[in-house]
Amino acid sequence: MLRIKSSYIKAITVTAAVLALLCFYVYITLFVDVSVVHAQTAFEQFGDASNLPQQSITVIIARVIRVFLGIIGIILTIMIIYAGYLYMTAQGMPEPMDKAKRILKQSVIGVIIILLSFSFTSWLIGRLIGGGDPSAIQVVSKPYSEPLKGSLGSGILNSHYPPVNAVDIPRNTKIFVEFKEPLDPDSIIKDFDSENYDPATDVVFIDPDAVKIFQTKDKQANGSISSFLDSSKVRVMFTEDKKIFVFQPQEYLGDGISNINYSVMLGSGIKKDDGSDAFTGIYSAGYEWTFTIGTEIDLTPPEVVSVVPVQDAVEPKNVTVEVTFSEAMDPIVTSGSFILGDANPEFTNVKVKEFGAIPPEVEGTYEISNAYKTVGFTTTDACGKDPCGDVIYCLPGNADITVVLKAADVDPDNIPQAKIFGALPNGLADAAGNSLDGNKDGKGCQDIVGVGIPDPNDPTSCPVSGLDGYSWSFTTTNELMTDVPKIESTAPEMGTGEISQTEPITALFDQIMKSSTVHTGSASLWPDPFPVEAQDTWWFMSGKNDATGKSRVSISHPTLHKDTEAGHKYYPLFTHDLKSKYQICMYPSQGVGVCDGSVPGNITNTASPNCCDANAQGAKCTPFSGEPFPINISD
């Protein structure tokens, strides 16, 4: 018969008690002083730089303890069954019955200790990694753990593609970076000759001191980069206004077998067009972000998903012309200006035409925005001012307007990739170089039977004659629309607690908003308090989605942080720089709730703590006195 000494049971029980005490010690060490978790150790810094799977050593210890507790619990359960067996087979004999009682008593005590210890360990792990009790999820979350990110939103950068931490990016992607001010190309391009540069024909490459593209694992703990893409294998292109720069690797990223993390670093030596530093102050070290390259090559052509105005609409002449695509488009071939007689090459990949006019093309500027998915057109014809005093530009009044998009010629050997003429495609293409698919047949606009020749047997291969890829028409009146846009709702609602740490912050407007006015200067998100040591890691980007005659403006951001049981506050700011599709600013501000506009910050409805979120407010909103940032939801 199996014999187990009671001393073994005592040893197991004592072990469980010791493990429970060890868990309690870990808790006291970590959580009595919450600030301990806010300091990033050298080990964590190395982990962030290497992009290796990371987990705190305290979490690993706690998990090991939980495993041991589980094993000991199984053993004690077996002991209880064994004690029951001894008792059942004792046949009334005192000695085996007493032994069975001792084992049962000690095993039950051990099981109770195990259950309490296991529960405590599970709760402790939840505290360490952000699971379990919602009120405890964020108490020890590491704040703003993404260094060199502060320039995005609050600094010189407005946006970039791929986005921060994007996944499944195709191997043949281009990389876009949009600055808020024009840059000096000589500070980014190696051996740049500004006087003789022709963007249509000249191929130039990055300066490795200014831009580095590398696998994230190749960044060392001390910040040095052991290996990065050869500068002679990364082309550079930039838009006419010198604000958007496109970096095109000449070889596919990744290996086609597994997902690989890549990083892009913009150096501190990059200059503005006036010669001053682009990265200054707390952002002076430059900017860096990471994304994941997948295993696929993108051969899916972009499509048109929506247009403003819609087909056959009748609109006031101050309406904005916009087209939104299914994916990010190459800014070099989707933005520019058309000014007759201008010294710069005329942009012709998108044309706004007035029927019967000579010449039919309307002069103006084409801008890309909304994460590089929307192209908007603004004319040069000033026709009024909005309530903020900004100029409104108008299309020809009482006119029939047609908008024509030209798809790039497709490479017949690599459909739907755009063919390169000189240095660029000759029409619209996406971030992976695929030509616009005007008729949504999955092949690009043209069904090629020869170089640049549409299929003569398929009249629908291009909706417009020749190589044009897409078109639509509408009519203008001679009136101006002056309705002020309003915020109808926000998500999350104001004052909401325990919100998602990762979901974008959004505001729903009562009409379509002009895409190019949605940027980090008009839609932003600020933490309060905003410690100086966190400012270089706090980033945000803005964009919009249109549906049923309304726009939802969104602000993406890093993981939100909560450092106390009372919570951590965040303040979205939507300013009067946001304009409707009729170029009318959000002023006077209107929306949910009421506040007294006579005194900034004087709220009359405490349920709606929004300075300036008032009905027909007559005074321009100013920040609350003494606050580091405005804490209103609208301006």
Give a description of the structure.
The radius of gyration is 31 Å and the shape is elongated. Helix 1 (6-31) packs parallel to helix 4 (94-129). The longest helix is centred in the first third of the chain and has 36 residues, at 94-129. It has a 5-stranded antiparallel beta sheet, with no helix packed on it. A 5-stranded antiparallel beta sheet has the order 9-11-15-14-12. A 4-stranded mixed beta sheet has the order 10-21-18-13, with no helix packed on it. It has 635 residues and is of the alpha+beta class. It folds into 4 domains: 6-137, no CATH class; 157-293, Immunoglobulin-like (Sandwich); 304-476, Immunoglobulin-like (Sandwich); 483-635. It is 18% helix and 22% strand. Residues 28-55, 129-141, 446-468, 590-609 and 611-635 have low confidence and may be disordered.
Could you give a short description of this structure?
By secondary structure, the protein is an alpha+beta fold. The chain folds into four domains: about 5-135, no CATH class; about 155-295, Immunoglobulin-like (Sandwich), CATH 2.60.40; about 305-475, Immunoglobulin-like; about 485-635. The chain is elongated.
